[in-house]
Each structure stands twice: as C-alpha cells, then as structure tokens.
Protein: DNA (cytosine-5-)-methyltransferase
Organism: Allopontixanthobacter confluentis
Amino acid sequence: MRSVELFTGCGGLALGLSRAGFEHEALFEWDNDAVETVLHNKAAGIEHVEHWPVIKADVRDLHWNDFADMTLVAGGPPCQPFSIGGKHKGNADARDMWPHAVRAVAETMPRAFLFENVRGLARPKFAGYLASIVDRLRTPAKGLRYDVTVHKVNAADFGAPQQRHRVVIVGLRSDEDAASLKLEATHSRERMLWDQYVEGAYWSEHQLEPRLEGFAKRDAAAVRKLRDSGVEPQGKRWVTVRDALRGLGEPNGENNHVFQAGAKVYPGHTGSPLDLPSKALKAGDHGVPGGENMMVKDDDTVRYFTLREAARLQGLPDDYMFPRSWTESMRQLGNAVPCQLSEAVGNAIVKTLTRHDRKVPMAA
C-alpha cells in the first residue's frame, strides 16, 4: 500500500507505518537536522528506512499532482500552536499547518489519511478549530468525501513504554468500509497493576524482590479492587520504563547511550519512575524543558534519559542513531510519534482497507 507523509520529523510515524505494511512514495520534512537524522539512518541501511525517499521541503510550497491516488496520506502537523506548554495561539500561530494537511488530502485523494497531534488540540479552547479541521477533511474537495473519526489515545495503551496522550484523526474515503475501522487498546494499566501487585510476576521477570506495597497512593484503590475481584485482566500490561530499558545498563558512552549531567527535581518536574510507563517525552528549545525527560532510579536519584533510552521509549530500534547534538536530538525525539502507536493505527487502517478489498470483486 502506497503512502506519502508530511512533517516526517525523525521518522517515528513513518517507521510504525512501514512496519504496518505501507510503502512510502515520499517523506517530506523541512527541518534540516531532522532530515539529516533520517538520511543518516537511511545510509546505514536500517530496516525499512533504507528505502525511504526522504525530501527536504516546505509543505507550503508543494504541489501534490505526482502523488494522486495514494492509499494513505499521513503526518503530524506541528503541535506547538495547540500544546499545553506552548503559547496557545492555535490557528493564529504561523506554525499552524493544518490547512496544508487538508490540501494534501484534497489533491492526492487517498483511500485513507492519518494525522496525529497533541491532546491539547481537543481542549475546549480549540474545540471550534478542531471541528473545522474535521469538517474540511470530510469534504476537502468538490466530489470528494471522507468518513472522519477523532480518537483520543494514550500510547501506553498500544504498547509504548510512555504515557503519551494524543489526538489521532483517521479518515476513510466514502467508498471504503469506514464502519469496520477498529482502533482497540492492546495494553492496560489494570494488567500492569495485576502483574505487579496482585500476582507479582513482574518482579520475578526483573529478578527483583517483590515490592507489593510499593504502588503509589493513586493506584491503591485500583489494586484493592483487582485483589477483591480476583479476576485477571485480559490483554497485555502497560510496558514500564524498566521493561523498555532491560539489558541496556548504565550509560557507557556508546551507541547514543551517553550520560548527560544536570538533571534535578523541582515542583511539577519529578521524572519518570521505573515501574510505570514514562511521562511523555517533551521537546523544548533546549532539548529538555522543565527538568523532565529523566528517570527516577531505584535509589530515588534522578538522571536524564540518554538518547538511546529515549529512542527505546519511542519504539525506535537500537541501531537507529541520532548524529546531532544531545539537545537537538532530544528535541526530535520529543516531537516524534511512538512507533508502537503509529504501527497500531496503521494496522487498523490496513485491516479495514483489506477487508473492503475482499468484499469488492475485481473488475474483469
């Protein structure tokens, strides 16, 4: 299935979609550092990435005539206009690229589209603008109509070791079987709590003594409920930081696994405990805004995640390298879509389109 992507960044969305079976005809990104990161991994022959046609370009200057009849148009328009940590200017922000995402759909007329953004886009402040985006995506051009659904998701529910709340907008052309699209969580907090504090298998897996009373106060009621019910939750558990970093060890100066000094705790910025999915990685002007992007170790000290650790939290493979500075690379990682989430949404779209194709007989 052929796809084209806008706002590729360092490649998290593209890699998840590649794993789901999409073949990218073009990946567009205007930021030079992000393009260099993708090109570095392309040259290194990283699986999927080695075949990516990444192009440095500003989407405002693009014409989409060469990409008509794509299976999928995807992208993560810049989130800063809608981020809780931003200036909250929304569509008054010059970085608002949603009109160009709509234009790409209008001109390529794909069977489906997928756009991802911060959960701040769904805040009451921007409710009117989100509604207008959805309306424009429903009918991006005369005679072209899509069934559009808006999904508020947590990447942890799809296997990412990170509590990253996002808005995912999926559209299926009106001649597709949109009603069959299912985006269902595969992982849960309840299963994690069961494995940790009811059954205890989590600690055995990590060769640690059980910490059966170590759960946070906010989880105490949920743990009591699980214990009292005796009903084992179905599905997989949330993937914790400890799970994600298994076997990596302390920073050794190699493979982007380099110690970065300066981490500290202060009100509102306390780092990510090892036995939960991490807090959402952030992207600030200086790489790590507000003292976050750090782990809380077993001895209660904190340190910044290395690039290698942050890449694991985003679902990137260990041979996916970041050749730029730590601050620039952490910015790219903070802006990335977790590969586990993009693969899950990609799989849901592929299943829906494939199911439709089986129902529609081939023309003679």
